[in-house]
Amino acid sequence: MQTLIRHIHKDRKGREALDERVIGESVITVGHGGDQSIQLRDPAVARRHLELRPSPDGRFRYRAVGGAEPVSGGKASSRGILEPGDRLELGEQAIAVGEPEAGFDAVLEIVTVEREEQVGAATHHRISLAQTRLSMRRPSWILLVAVLLLFLGVPLAGYFWPDLGDELRENPLLPSDHVWSSGPLASVHHTPEIGLDCQACHLNLFERAPDRGCLDCHAAVSAHVDRAQVSVPMLETMRCASCHREHLEPARLVRDDAGLCVDCHRAPGELAVALGEQPLPDPVSGFSQASHPEFRLALLRLEPAGDWRMERVPQSNSRVVETSNLKFPHDLHLDPTKVESLSTGEPLDCASCHALGEDGEHFETLSMEAACQDCHSLSFDDDFPRKQLPHGDVESVLVALEEHYIRKYADPDLRGGMRERGRRRPGRSESAESCEGTALECGRRQALQEAMNQFSRSGCVTCHEVSADASRPYLERWSVQPVRLVDDWYPYSGFDHEVHLTRSRTRMDGEAACGSCHAAKDSSTSEDVLIPGLDNCLQCHGPSDAHETTVALSCRGCHDFHLPFRGAMKDPDAARDAALGGTVSQIERGTDHD
Amino acid sequence: MHQNLLQYRRSRYLWVAVALLVASIVLYLTQDGDLPPNGGSWQGYTLGIVGALLIVWLSLLGIRKRSYRSTMGTVEGWTSAHVYLGAGLLVIATLHSAFQFGFNVHTLLYVLMVGVILSGFFGLFVYMSYPRRLARVRSGRRRKDWLTELNGIDVRIHDLAKRCSARTLAVVESALDRTRLGGGVFAQLTGRDRSLVADPDRDRGESKLVANPDQEVVIDHLSASIPRARKREEALVLQELLGLFGRRRTVLRRLRQDIRLQGWMWIWLFFHVPLTVAVLAALVVHVLAVFVYW
Fold first, then answer.
1. What count of other Cβ atoms lies within 10 Å of the Cβ of residue A443?
2. Sequential DSSP letters for A42-61
3. How many angstroms away from the CA of A143 is the closest CA of chain B?
4. Beta pairing partners, A97
5. Of B35, B182, B273, which is closest to A125 when you measure between CB atoms?
6. What is the mean pLDDT of chain B?
7. CA angle, corner A45, sides to A41 and A50, nearest 5?
8. Which candidate among A83, A118, A314, A496 keeps its CA 20 to 30 Å from the CA of A304?
């Protein structure tokens, strides 16, 4: 590469002088340093300022490395291409590219530009940040692309290629769709099924977490209302996540605020329509005498057909009478002067019969065998004190009596024993023991005698309602009304007996704590309902914003949203259809409630 | 007296920002007492929308200040509002986040935004305090005037040095050639003088460069040469060179401080602007991410 350099400059005496040189290098350097191909003594020119690379067609590519950018065609630029005829101005010089001459590949002419001012402000020093490598544009682009790629592109790729998505999620340093999470899941959702998989719940892009995500695991969630009785259109369009909010810090998966209930129950008629005979529930706006309806007890009534039907009766209603068909005076049993335990000799207390169940709310179902039989033995024949009547079936009792007495009269030893004793005892007719007939006759007579005694004087009739029809044969003569005790007085609300065993205001515990709500000591009949109502609760509890001497109680302190016996909250199949694109019905409704 | 950015129209935008903050805090506090405050409540969404609009509007300052023909408010007014509302954004975005942070794009956006705002605070600080210092450094002249004086001194020194001994000429020429002013980012911001000069104590032929901070070495060499001058004329030339280098030292010091202060007045923008672009990108991802997995 032969480049002819033609340098026209003024010598010390001001005369123009011409230097011609030939440079064979492929890079021609320009600067004020002595080692440069072309040396320009000019304050605007750095020691090494410009590189020129000639090409065979006579053109030059140039690149400035010094501070001041050369000007070509009126435009300052640190790099570019010079055609033959172009000029590049640098400080007080102009470098012009000439037409290639014979014998040379390229020609450069360097002339001094005459300026009015001999000394200007031009400098080759880099004196502003704009002349450094610092740039706003380059890092801006890098950051823009990096953010979009790492936090949008890569996680999205993981969504469309699930295998890639799984790999990304497994390495916490890689950007998976977890970078989109607005907060950790509630700890109950830290399950192997969900794990790190966002799509366990978020099934489709740009779609709110559908119910199907929830119902895959929570299929058995029960409904709030019985759809046969009440229509609540708003409930039907709500999503699980409308109430159950995930990714919150602190986690609050289950709402506990009054608004959950009273937003709708303040005026149930505005949102719900009763379909059956049951009226809509009374309005509720809080927990006070004025804002909360009276409690309704669930009482059991025996239908003529023999079934038990639940009837819900407000506390103040005159029909609040328990009809269990069991005779039981609480006051007598709790009177220490009259009743004491046969086994321990101690007076009875509540826990002698009532055992709190595992749920802390309900009590174990009472049974004759567990609660009564220790004292109320079913023995009937003093000669056979260990012989007991069967319990629970009238016919069995009557048959057992006949069998017992016929056997007794058929056995000569036993019959003889009876004759020898021969003494009358109170409550026993003389004729029975001194019967002279056959074993069958005497046994039957004695059995009838004992049955009449049991069903009308001192045995079964002590606790049971018995009716007798003397015109009927022996085995059909008596009937005992079935017994059923209420085991859940308030089936739609909860109550934790354990936490209430200590009532702080009175510092009572155990027995006294029971008595503070249940007036058993004053109840002489089993018709009394010993379950307290609203006013009893209000002695200690108030609404959540109440005075500081009352214990705050939110709706969910007693009530649940998903109630038993009311069917499923959501139809899993319908939810699946909806999630798989069957959203037509939603679109037709034109609604997407939250 | 010149009215500064913060006092524009009696700090009108300070009050706008304060009103916005009070409204935001009230909104934040009205969030349902049961659910923890979060960006997804209607209050949180409102704060988020206000924050996003603020981010977009604050970013537009870069465009507005280049639109010289725009009549949409003055650039000064925009900048005043930019400062106050930008500071307010810090609070609004924090309330929107409800102090919930994690390793996710949402917190990334927050961190980037805090970076932008903090760099903005630094920019505000240098814009408030450096122009006065710069004026003191320039003492009534422009940077251009100082550079012209430097070039003039250099030409004069160059001419005079030709009349001195070859040794002195070499030292003086190397001092001119190897004077470092400005340079890279670090050099501009620290203002350290890393000028060099050919070692005057070495024999001719061996050229070894030594540090020449504040032209000290060349000045020492010249003052040491004066008594050794053989002719009176040569002593006079050396004397004049000594005076010129003394002035050159002053001019270089001024220019160095000028470059340093000017550098600090700009450097924050090299963080502020790219981070703003990153904030806009993260904002897009943040909004999308909220709705991608709704």
1. 22
2. -TTS-SS-EEEEE-TTS-EE
3. 5
4. A108
5. B182
6. 89
7. 115
8. A314
